[in-house]
Specification:
The structure is a homohexamer of 285-residue chains. In chain A, strand 10, helix 10 and strand 11 form a beta-alpha-beta unit. The two termini of chain A are 27 Å apart. With 285 residues, chain A is α/β, with parallel strands linked by helices. The longest helix of chain A is centred in the middle third of the chain and has 31 residues. Chain A is elongated. In chain A, helix 3 packs antiparallel against helix 4 and helix 8 packs parallel to helix 9. The first copy, chain A, contains eleven helices and twelve strands. A six-stranded parallel sheet of chain A has the order 6-11-10-9-8-7. Helices cover 42% and strands 19% of the residues of chain A. Chains in contact: A-B, A-C, A-D, A-E, A-F, B-C, B-D, B-E, B-F, C-D, C-E, C-F, D-E, D-F, E-F. Chains A and B meet through helix 1, helix 2, helix 4, strand 7 and helix 6 of A and helix 1, helix 2, helix 4, strand 7 and helix 6 of B.
Chain lengths: 285, 285, 285, 285, 285, 285
């Protein structure tokens, strides 16, 4: 589900405005006002569904008279041929809103589906798949929800709800004890309600971060061997996170190093869409 | 280049708002105000670049003092290690805007890159690769520009700048001469400045559409053999377009049927991102 | 009818905001909350009605409890004394929204009315009256609809849904074959779904445009004699359009030259309002 | 000049968005990026200029690199052939912004021009021409400024900066002393910084309004004779205003009745545009 | 009540966006979707209520399914323990919207309460308490309504609905007759529907303002003795207003000088909140 | 400093729009365009300054030609008579923007000042003063910054960047182990980057929360004695926070109980403004 106050709705408004512009010339030409119709959204490729709220909102914005009735829930797996949702209402409105609703549903289901694949791959290890900020511009709320629907967990939403000290921040702090100083600086400024995470690349930094009281330590592009050793060093003093170029083929071995979290940019930056199509029929429901 | 008046800028504002929220806690904690820095954006995977304007605008919105200097142009191919752009300015602003700028550049370059692959695949045939409305919600202007940067051509922008009569419109019109009636209806209502395209599935419809004066006839999910025959029927009376599940492996055979245009939803709905990273250094340029 | 996604509604919001500001002092002072009323909108001058949707939307934005019931349809002719619409609802809301609703209805009906006059003037010729981009800033969707309600046809909506090569574009291209080059340049860049129109002033340009495959050729400020000759040159290879200072007194002769389209800026830039007034009565409907 | 904070700029943004949409296809096709040009805006019909700020803002929003140099001031009279303004800057930006800038300038100059005609007609009488709320939706700030540029005076801006008790408000109050009660109700609720005006139709109401302390008394659709008598009754106890169907042919006789103000809806609801055209040349200024 | 068209609603949208952001993590975690609940808003400190519309709108924007039923009216006094409003609806929505609704209600009731204290203090004198422009940025409409709910009267809403000539304006005009000239300049430019007020500091200026026909004369930081003398000079030729550092302890003596209006910035710039709390219970209403 | 992307700027735009409306009638009447002026903002009451960025932005939005030069920094203490900032630029723009700039500066300095008083009161104890969500609607970013300028620390910004389980959430979970279950539910849903805080009222709940791994435990309206005992129970397993009706007179005793944090709603819901005034002089800087 999508729960933010305004952002995702603003995105959907932009999407409708860019598609509909000054009016759907084809539909206005060929469909008389007042014609009623029904539609069925069906999966043409298998996947995990996400984006039902977004699709519903898009259709509602086009015309509150369109009824959108999901037949599955966000997070459900669908096979080819499964009905995802049924629609009924004014034929013009269904045809005008169809593309935007499907574009949202297909892309978000794509994110949920790839997430579910990663999650399945590490089943039985103690690790958790988390997302990143490599989301589609404007769609972060929707894509973060899709990751949850796929069984993943969310990393921080953005720059203001978590501290993640990266190499560039450490470089700016400088000095031999830069990890320690950076963590202290973050504690001083950030609300006490957010955790402090630091990205490290060496085992010495791992040790320093743990001593300095980092809440979360991110192992950046470390080998699996190195991550095992890093985990031993941390010794449960902090949450550990593996990051960097994680692929479906490599994720299980990473999980088996014992890290707590594995962050995967590909969940949102390169997920192929799930194919969902609308069949349409004139007449009332 | 991106030339629309307002849409793409509104999208970038949404993207920055969702990422930055009430402030970049980490950067504000660890980087003193007034610190200057430089950055280099480098390709980590090969591709065709698109989105330089979008990245520049994103950084400018974060802070007009950030200078963004592209070292390539939209449409240029880059190899691993090529420098895409250089940045200089306040360290805080570069770090705060980095992710949104990269997200835009990586995704749009992904669209340009896959487009270029399709274009290359059909080199020497007379066909042209065109995009669809299966774009990322909110990013249509940017993705349509990326298709051009990849060497493709744009289909209509949205529902108000072209007529495309589909099966559902024909079904609503009904009757044996529904193709003819639909084309006439569109001529009556739409500005004379837009062309009328009709999607057909049988050879009889092809013939009817050509006689009725369709400007463009879309062959929907026809076999290559059928498209060849359809092209003979049209006999240059209209522009012809192949559509439906076109893949990199199948596109050349389709082009060789003699169709004028091949529309490919995958250009925008499933393009993997190009990997571009920022290296960052303190100090003035 | 008004079918665009967002533009015309945004305009009406601006109009209400500028009129109502921080509240209707007079109505709030003199009308008790809860008072119900009815109203009747009556034509005080003859004309063709347009803007019923706009008026309805304006009143709905002020208060969804106001019922607005049109007694005619957009495009209907009304005589003095004809009832255009009936209203009922909270007295405060009717009085607060009245002026904006009437301003919209009167102006848009003015556009429909003058359009109908031009259309009547050329009855029986094969020509069609079309509008221009000389619309009231912010009201383009509404005024383009009003032109259709008056029996006219729309030219392109704006700069992004049609190509219209004018003298300044030709001057920038330059060279003896600038018409040919400009048409080719437009084909290369614009979606294939929009037509290419070129504005010409000499018969040589007419011939060049027809050979170069212009879809539409605009005769700019030509004499009627010259337009007849131009039409013979085009010989149905393109749609022809007369443009420039067309007036009600001159339009029939222009139509008789055999041009397909006559574009008339005055439809939208100088249409006098139709006079419509609201009579108001306390009490329920 | 235009001095409001946000309204008129929002209107111009809407106007540019509706015209430019996803980009000016013609200009982008035919004018190379980087081409510089100059332009001259020249009056093609005589009139009084208004809207220079609006035109300048529109061009600046398209491209801050366009220089717009007025050669006259708002309120100046121009003859056919007079130069109104000069432009220089990127050719693409001038051509893309031209239509919106001209649409604003032509319409607002139309309002200033008709206002000046009314003002000239009553020269030497003590009366003042004032506008009404019958303005173009969205353009009130700009049109109110145009009225001032034409030598007229502004009535209240909208519903929240003045009290104007009309027949419908009086009907809602009811009773023999409804004028008195309405004025008292307005004093009670409205800020003491706004004046209270009441619209009356009988001489008895005139007397009642004056006794009740109305600041301004509007004579609604009274004959000239009746207005003279009404003026005698008021005897300078209030400002007097004539209203209702005032035309250029009738305005002087109305002024000669001795009323202080004459409000004219036609200043803004039916003003024909002044014809202003742009000539364009490649090259730097 | 709050009657402006758009401003106060925009403020509430900002307030909800800043509080809810990308979602209420706690409520989403702990309250199942579909759980219903009721709530009671109770006064924890005595005061005069204002902001019921604002609170209702905030809750409605979070979820139109939340029913908000005021048990008192704006302007009513409440004692500790009095029920202000009852709520019922989805538990998640009530908890998510609670803080914003309460923040509005508490602050606006604070303004109404302090206003009522000032009003009570001057009971029986002929003076009226009015507000100033020292309102909380963004909340002017709501706070001006709160002043009315507390029994005060509103000064001008802002810079465009009244003329108030201050020392800085007089200084810019200059000359011995600067008060006279400033009043004349304002009459020339401002709509005749707004009154002209001038702020004066000496008795000579008082006399000049009265002669020049000021509608309202503001005595700026004068002693009570001086105001009495100033009132004698004005002799009912204008409305008189006392201004400057008025406190609850000093206001009665000021009122007893005979001034018509006393403007008090503290009504809105320093009003302590009224304490109102929400008790919450699961289950249907 | 204020670092959020968009919220605080949107608030300032609302504030300027509400104050300036369709134009500053007084200034436009009395100050000729082109007049230059300078101004000095001076403290009239002692306090801690906050809001310099906000004031600067407000003036810049009115007119980028106004130069605003702070003479102190946010967080500095000022005495009566201290210069806070100097301005120079167009006289009209300074006078038009003055009130909004001062309203921001005075209120935010009020927040910083009261915060500094609370901070001073607990000097030498180990406790930290933190704010709450009881901020002025729309001003949260600015007020949270003001709290930092006063030496306080921020609690979570809003509902999406921290988990704070309150009595109502616990009631909805229900059961003897509701504290434990609520914490687990939050861990499951919320990003791992935010901490989980729980509000408790009994010592048994304190113990349960500590065992269940709450990151922060809020003692809600406990007596000081009870908080001491609660602190002993927690025994550094979690951060402890005192909450509920904290006043300047009671805060030190609370701090001496050994709690880590003391949250004070009064910092933002009832802070009196600091008095800052603008003196203005014609002429250049």
């Amino acid at each position: 589900m999508t729960e933010g106050y305004a952002g995702w709705k603003a995105l959907i408004d932009l999407a409708l405005a860019e598609d509909i512009g000054s009016g759907d010339l084809t539909t206005l030409s060929t469909i008389p006002a007042g014609t009623m119709a029904t539609g069925v959204m069906t999966a043409k490729s298998p996947g995990v569904i996400s984006g039902l709220d977004a699709a519903a909102y898009a259709l509602w914005r086009v015309d509150p008279c369109v009824e959108f009735t999901p037949k599955v829930q966000d997070g459900d797996s669908v096979a080819v041929g499964d009905v995802v949702a049924e629609l009924s209402g004014p034929a013009r409105s269904i045809l005008t809103g169809e593309r935007t609703a499907l574009n949202l549903l297909q892309r978000l289901s794509g994110v949920a589906t790839i997430t579910a694949q990663f999650v399945a791959e590490i089943a039985g290890t103690g690790a958790t798949i988390v997302d990143t900020r490599k989301t589609t511009p404007g769609l972060r709320e929707l894509e973060k929800a899709a990751v949850r629907h796929g069984g993943g967990h969310n990393h921080r939403f953005g720059l203001s709800d978590g501290v993640l000290i990266k190499d560039n921040h450490l470089a700016a702090i400088g000095g031999a004890d830069r990890v320690t100083k950076a963590i202290a600086a973050a504690r001083l400024r950030a609300p006490h309600t957010v955790r402090v995470e630091v990205e490290v690349t060496t085992l010495a930094e791992v040790e320093e971060a743990a001593i300095a009281g980092a809440d979360i330590i991110m192992f950046d592009n470390m080998s699996n061997e190195m991550m095992k050793e890093a985990g031993r060093i941390v010794a449960k003093r902090a949450i550990t996170e593996a990051s960097g170029g994680v692929r479906l083929e490599t994720v299980r071995k990473i999980a088996e190093t014992g890290v707590d979290l594995i962050s995967v940019g590909a969940l949102t930056h390169s997920a192929p869409s799930v194919d969902i199509s609308l069949t349409f029929a004139l007449g009332d429901n």
